[in-house]
Amino acid sequence: MNKPVTNQGLEDLLAEAAYDRSHAAFARQVNAAGARDHGLILRYDGASVYWWLRGRRPEQPGPELIATVLSARLHRQVNVAELGFAGRDGERDGLLFPATVPEAVETASALWRRFGRRGRPATVAPFVTAAAIETGWRWHFDPPDSSIARAAGRRVTGMDVEMLRGCFDQFLELDRRHGGGHARTFLADFLTRDVAPLLRGSYTDPVGRDLFAVAAELTGMAGFMSYDISEQGAAQRAFIQALRLSKASGDRTYGAHILANLATQAVFLDLPGEAVRLARAAIDGAGRRPVASVSARLLSSQATAHAVAGDLQAFRTAIGKAEHALNRADETGPSWAGYFSPAHLAGSAMRSLLDLGRPEEALTFREQVMDLAPGNARTRALHTALTATAYARAGHVDAAAHLALEALALAQRIRSERVQARITLLASTLAPHRPVPEVAAFLEQAVGP
Q1: DSSP state of 155
Q2: Contacts 24+ apart (CB under 8 A), 34-40
Q3: Tell me: the pLDDT tens digits for 179-218?
Q4: 179's torsion region: left (phi>0), alpha (psi -120 to 50) or beta?
Q5: Which terminus in the chain has less CB density within 10 A, N or C?
Q6: Cα(256)–Cα(41) distance, rounded to whole angstroms?
Q7: CA distances from 88 to 6, 56, 414, 429 (A)
Q8: Which SUPFAM superfamilies does the protein's record reference (predicted)?
Q9: Distance between CA atoms of 65 and 71, rounded to whole angstroms?
Q10: Is the pTM of this model over 0.85?
């Protein structure tokens, strides 16, 4: 006895395309599209279509191929979101690199909505190691979007884009001062209410590319906020969608920055192989001559990746190149790269040298890491805890204890799991020295008696 159809969306599209009575012919068209567009040998048949209609989702690029075949048959754009598969593979929502610009808009919009829901449903999404590497490959090798002009909905102008950039600056200030846990829900609501309608509006190709660029930056910020509060699966999905939006904008340097963020996330999760590959992909993807500030930021990510992989020589080479690039930096770089200062590079070097077991050398950066602008409250807390850890591992317990109390005071004003992780690491490093009064005072406040 046949099972009932559960995917009404796909059934309706097949009927509209006159494939409702020729499932095998439809499957052959999907196979042909896979061979033509991706060089794949697929063996879908009528039974495959039967199960798609009953809740089974084909592996990628199956949904993309189905949408391609239906689009050609119906002479209109059919998006993956219309196929009825959404929500049936919840773990992968936002995890795939959308094939087309309309799919990118719908996938990002769905992710923003989930981020904005109270109760934090996005936190259940797991981090998927292979997804970041696949995304980097797709970003690098998928063909560029020839035009993203759109002629439906309200007219979007350059003034709308400038408004979004002003809001980006405000959210960035909130994140740096208070941590990712403070403003991500507000940012997600803004993306849903203000940015998504603009992406679905009407715009020329130049305005559209500027619009997608700022949407990518805002989505990347949502990813970094998620990373900061240790929602790693949510962060990964936001970074992937930011990467797709940046590809639509044509801004390769920001896409490279997002790949570097994925590399940094891999470092945090102690995935050295993935970190090294992603950092290399970021540098390769930025082109031959990125501006100095961008180059420094990407090379810094590569240095930390090599350090967590235990490669001292590769770390020294990358950090030296990053220092040289930062010395050449001026005011000509993109605004999003302006945050990366000598103090940030010194923090990367110090953390890397600790990973490499060289705390005394790490302490040579102790003054540079604290040379921060007043608004960088989270980075100041991170660097204070990091410096205290370096002192502790080098055997300078009194100096470590003094800075530990300072780091704890800073951490209490910031909603950041990264900062809390640094405090926890510092506490475990200082735990053998509890008899020292200042260490005992720190440990009592940090972990209890």
Answers
A1: B
A2: 34/61, 34/65, 37/61, 37/65, 37/68, 38/65
A3: 888 889 899 999 999 999 999 999 999 999 999 999 999 9
A4: left
A5: N
A6: 32
A7: 11, 8, 37, 45
A8: TPR-like (SSF48452)
A9: 10
A10: no
Amino acid making up residue 251? D
d(CA 14, CA 74): 10
Three-state DSSP class for 202?
strand
HSE, side-chain direction, 13 A CA sphere, residue 22: 9
Supply the pLDDT for residue 61: 78
Whole-number average pLDDT of the chain: 90
**Residue 127, token pair as written in the block:** 């981090």
**Using 50, 70 and 90 to split pLDDT, how confident is the model at 92?**
very low
Q: Which residue has the tokens 């002192």?
A: 391
Q: Which residue's structure tokens are 């997600």?
A: 188
User: Cβ neighbours of residue 319 under 8 Å, at least 6 residues apart?
Assistant: 299, 300, 303, 345, 348, 349, 352
Structure tokens at 25: 């012919």
Which ranges in 53-179 belong to alpha helices (H)?
62-74, 101-116, 129-141, 158-178
- The amino acid present at 157, given as its one-letter code, is T
What Rg do the C-alpha atoms of the chain give, in angstroms?
24
Q: CA 163, CA 325: separation in Å to the nearest integer?
A: 32
Taking 50 as the threshold, does the pLDDT of residue 407 lie above it? yes
Whole-number Å distance between alpha carbons of 273 and 192: 35
Polymer length in residues for the chain:
449
Strands 202-203 and 150-151 turn out to be antiparallel
Please answer whether residues 213 and 246 qualify as being in contact, where contact means their C-beta atoms are separated by less than 8 angstroms.
yes
pLDDT tens digits for range 27-47: 999 999 988 877 778 889 999
User: Which residue matches tokens 């097949």?
Assistant: 14
Q: Which amino acid is at 404?
A: A
Q: Which residue shows structure tokens 């209410």?
A: 193
At 202, give phi and psi (nearest 5°). -110, 130
| Residue 89 scores a pLDDT above 50 | no
> b/e per residue, 375-388, with b = 16+ CB within 10 A?
ebbbbbbbbbbbbb
Q: Take residue 213 and report the two structure tokens written for it.
A: 């660029």
Spatial neighbors of 141 by CB under 8 A, at least 6 apart, are none
Read off the pLDDT of residues 252-300 as tens digits, 9 standing for 90 and up: 999 999 999 999 999 999 999 999 999 999 999 998 888 999 999 999 9
Q: What mean pLDDT do residues 315-344 have?
A: 90
Instruction: At 111, list the tokens.
Output: 């992710």
